[in-house]
User: What shape does this take?
Amino acid sequence: MIFLNLRKIIFFLIIFSLSFQVGFHFWPAFSRIAGIRVDYLSPTTYLLDILIIVFILVSGFEFWLGRKKAVIRVNFIVAAVLTLFVFDILLNLFIVASPQAHLLGIIKIIEFSFFAFFVAYSFKKADIPYFVDALALSALVSSTLSIWQFVKQSSIGGLWYFLGERTFNTSTIGISTVNLDQQILRAYGAFPHPNVLAFFLFAAIVFATLRFPFEKRVFEKVFLIFTIIISSVALFLTFSRILILVALSFLFFDFFSKSKSNKLRLVLVLVSLGAFYILFSFPWFISFLTRGIDFRRELLDQSLMILSSNLYFGVGLNNFFIHQAPLIKTISPIIFQPPHNIFILALVQTGILGFLVFAYLLALSFRSVSKKLRHAIRDTRNFYKGVLVLLISVIIVGMFDHFFLTLQQGQLIFALILGLSFSKIKG
Assistant: This one.
């Protein structure tokens, strides 16, 4: 019971701490490309890493104590594929341009794989309300900071700095802004990029929305409603186009599915179509939606050129930037960026085999959640519905961004979703 309670406390602390990127960066020689520091290659010790390692150790000891009750069935095909993948990434240690950067990637894979495994193994039905509350509370903190940043058009500093907020304003080199007759700073919170913040807020909105019908306490209902409203405002201020569209689609279909009146459904559809028609009539909206296409196309062209010479084994984890350096043309040479597509990134880094493992893992997670949805009832069903929504969103957002595979908080969110998709909640 001691280890059980300790594991739960640490897990919920991890969920709450998702909002903060408190960490200490190191800058060894391999983290510089052409003399330029690349954030993605900096070995960093995050507060989240410490919590995750403690969670893994406690969960592992709890697993070992209950090993007689644990029944883990491994499919032969799954075992074979994973074995080949392990062989693939270990072989790359001897052939990649930067073995140190590749090893750093292997360490992160091991860390988040164990985290996802123990989430899947230990998450129970009784954890659902506490999980949603921890996520919602964290979203409220992030939303408060994000709205404050947007109003001030700069970072806030003070205590927020020690919680992981970076120092920036609209003039900071490389900061993300949106042009609305003038450069407007996008909300960051304490995340490395507005898009990561947007997905985190979206996850909180999804779970809070689907949990709301099953809460009986008035205070809890008010808390969840407040979370949904404030998080939605902060999500909009990130100006993350794809996630705003995904969030609107989720809220639309959730309301549409709960409506029992066909007339109300028709009105909802007509209003939505009318709103989009009006928005698309404004040139600034078209410009807003198409912003960054040339940037992403350039990265895709670079990725395909690199892939053509490294098709089977890939260039290695975190080695993309080494091969990218001589290909940089229109992109600023002081900003190295990976391809903004998790599937292309997986293919370029790990080759055909790694890509197939990645796709197979996603397929297994979809199958796992779909199977549970057929048997689950009431709040458990809604919880798995939320996991499925987020899995689908990972695919959609992952077609346009990379943070699920490259940034600490994005990697943790991805591992958490995968772990929850394989969890076995009865009821």
About this structure: The first strand starts at residue 23 and ends at 25. The CA atoms of residues 310 and 351 lie 7 Å apart. The chain has a mean pLDDT of 87. Residues 1-122+298-427 form one domain.
